[in-house]
Amino acid sequence: MNADAKKTVLRMIPYGIYVLTADDGQGNVAAATVNWVTQTAFAPPLVVVGVKTDSGTYQTTKTTKTFALNMLGKDQKSLAFTFFRPADLSDGKISGQSYRKGVTGAPILVDAPGAVECKVTTVIEQGDHHIIVGEVVEAHLNKAPAGRPDAAILEMKDLGDNVFYGG
Question: pTM here?
Answer without folding.
Answer: 0.92
